[in-house]
Automatic annotation (TrEMBL):
This is Aminopeptidase N. It catalyses: Release of an N-terminal amino acid, Xaa-|-Yaa- from a peptide, amide or arylamide. Xaa is preferably Ala, but may be most amino acids including Pro (slow action). When a terminal hydrophobic residue is followed by a prolyl residue, the two may be released as an intact Xaa-Pro dipeptide. SUPFAM superfamilies: Leukotriene A4 hydrolase N-terminal domain, Metalloproteases ('zincins'), catalytic domain. CDD domains: M1_APN_like. PANTHER family: LEUKOTRIENE A-4 HYDROLASE. It comes from Amycolatopsis acididurans. Its EC number is 3.4.11.2. Belongs to the peptidase M1 family. Pfam families: Peptidase_M1, Peptidase_M1_N. InterPro entries: Aminopeptidase_N-like_N, Aminopeptidase_N-like_N_sf, M1_LTA4H, Peptidase_M1, Peptidase_M1_dom, Peptidase_M4/M1_CTD_sf.
């Protein structure tokens, strides 16, 4: 359990610089699972730097250049230390160019295999929390948000979906190059590439929404995501405007353990569609992450309840809205099932990062706050939280201060009771 303020993952990311944009060119051969890539990072030094660190897991790195000059680099595990030919001045903008190739493999560890992974017929990326270095060199800390251009060249028989707007698609003899732009500041773990034989199912409504799905699952997905446009309208009413231009759901042909969110995207397994809306709770959860987690991203993993507690509470709000069990009933049920937590959910420790109390007690905390300040102030506070910090990085201290400003009273004791410490 880390002391408050210290990073949970000190071996990820580098605080001495910020990446403003990533330009990634990926050439991917599906059957041998081989990636040849060229990455250009535009970064800003936060202090004078004679060296800095990138996260990249696996691959053979053939060249690293800083501002066009060859740079020395040394690799140890997923860490790559880069020594520019000349030190970088504090505040200087600099470009890092990395050429690398090899068989992308997920990052293993306490959260299983995460990152770039092969499907039976294609590939997917699901990176939370530390999988991004499985496919591109990055400053892998959640609060370091950047814009991206991602170009993927692969067999023309497959559809490529990347978190971002498709800006061009050029078909060659056998391969097609797809270029995507993600303009909104985005955390490395929320960038995703999906490659498969997908059909596309558009959904109606003012916010562009579509489902990419294997043909055999199209009818089931059509039923299971049928109420998503209503859900979108409900969440826009409660949380404010949807924070991205489009929402894309990908249903893979393989089973997945859990659905996972990416920027403007969510990925579900074949096992999460049954044609009977049996997983609608998860549809609501992933959509809610677009506000809480993706637009507002936690600056440190310690504050994970700001993602998961909020997405869980959104599930309950949708349940009530859609005629399922009401919020009061769900609060009673989960209050009895998760009556306390063996660890402070405001500082759960790396080992408990994705444990049920973070989700359920997190949601119960929000409900208790709602009870304390009343519906009107609570929902105004929630909408303003998502608006004021839109596309930013947030901490629990930010949320406590925000809630206090709306409540018009100190809430330190209230949050200490629910979150432990933060
Ligand atoms: Zn979640």
């Amino acid at each position: 359990m880390g002391a408050p303020g210290l990073s949970y993952l000190p071996d990820h990311g580098d605080e001495t610089y910020h990446v403003a944009r990533y330009d990634l060119r990926l050439d991917y051969k599906i059957v041998p699972n081989r990636l040849s890539a060229h990455a250009v990072l535009t970064a800003v030094a936060r202090r004078q730097l004679s060296r800095f660190t990138l996260d990249l897991s696996g691959f053979k790195v053939s060249a690293v250049r800083v501002d066009g000059r060859a740079a020395k680099f040394a690799r140890r595990g997923h860490r790559m230390t880069v020594k520019p030919a000349r030190p970088l001045a504090e505040g200087a903008e600099f470009a890092v160019e990395v050429r690398y190739s090899g068989n992308p493999r997920p990052v293993g560890g306490r959260w299983g295999d995460i990152g770039w992974d092969e499907l039976t017929d294609g590939a997917l990326v699901a990176s939370q929390p530390i999988g991004a270095p499985s496919w591109f060199p990055c400053n892998d800390r959640p609060g370091d948000k950047a814009s991206y251009t991602v170009a993927v060249t692969t067999s023309s028989a497959y559809r490529v979906l990347v978190t971002g707007d498709l800006v061009s698609r050029q078909a060659g003899a056998s391969a097609t190059t797809w270029v995507f732009q993600r303009r909104e500041p985005t955390s490395t773990y929320l960038m995703s590439v999906q490659i498969g034989r997908y059909d596309e199912l558009p959904l109606p409504g003012p916010v562009a929404q579509r489902v990419a799905v294997p043909r055999r699952l199209r009818d089931k997905a059509s039923a299971d995501f049928g109420r998503q446009p209503e859900m979108m309208a409900c969440f826009e009413r409660l949380f404010g405007p949807y924070p991205f231009g489009e929402y894309v759901v990908v249903v893979t042909d393989d089973d997945l353990e859990d659905p996972i969110e990416a920027q403007g995207m969510a990925i579900f397994g074949a096992n999460h569609v049954d044609g009977r809306c049996g997983f609608e709770r998860l549809v609501a959860h992933e959509l809610a992450h677009q506000w809480f987690g993706n637009s507002l991203t936690i600056a440190r993993w310690q504050d994970i309840w700001l993602n998961e507690g909020f997405a869980t509470y959104a599930e309950w709000l949708w349940s009530q809205e859609s005629g399922g069990p009401g919020v009061a009933e769900l609060v009673r049920e989960w209050g009895a099932r998760v009556p306390g937590s063996a660890f402070p959910i405001g500082d759960p420790g790396v080992a408990h990062l994705f444990d049920p109390p973070v989700y359920k007690r997190g949601a119960l905390t929000l409900h208790a706050l709602r009870g304390r300040v009343g519906d009107e102030r609570f929902f105004a506070m929630l909408r303003s939280w998502a608006t004021v910090w839109r596309h930013g990085a947030v901490t629990t201290a930010d949320f406590v201060a925000h809630a206090e400003a709306h409540a018009g009273e100190p809430l330190g004791g209230f949050f200490a009771e629910w979150l432990g410490r933060w």
